[in-house]
Design brief:
Radius of gyration: 20 Å
Helix content: 55-70%
CATH architecture: Orthogonal Bundle
Structural class: mainly alpha
Oligomer: single chain
Strand content: under 5%
Shape: elongated
Number of helices: 4
């Protein structure tokens, strides 16, 4: 019971920090907020997908001692989410690097004033 409350609080705090950082004017801080938000989503998947944690997902049902095994679908979704989050974060960082080299700033207010 206590672990569920801990997962809920940690997920909520990480989600709040990620959204707060995502809305910042500095592009690097926004990118970090994007990654924190993806971490919160992965933690949410982990918290929702665990049945009771007594048996791993790869145990054969006939050899299982006690408890319901964890759902392997959630584990696959978390791994997929980690790969997609890492790839999109790398792409976002490359956009920030190109923008900072071209416009000599990472402040989105200054980038917005360049529109003409």
């Amino acid at each position: 019971m206590m672990i569920n409350i801990l997962f809920a609080v940690a997920t909520g705090v990480l989600f709040g920090i990620g959204v707060f950082q995502l809305l910042r004017r500095d592009l690097i801080k926004s990118a970090m907020g994007y990654y924190v938000l993806f971490t919160a989503i992965n933690l949410l998947f982990l918290a929702v997908g665990v049945y009771d944690g007594t048996a791993p997902a790869y145990v054969d049902a006939s050899n299982q001692v006690a408890g319901q095994p964890s759902d392997p679908l959630v584990q696959a979704l978390i791994l997929t989410s980690i790969v997609i989050g890492f790839g999109s974060f790398a792409l976002l960082l490359s956009f920030v690097a190109v923008a900072s080299r071209r416009f000599k700033t990472v402040d989105s207010n200054e980038l917005d004033s360049l529109k003409g």
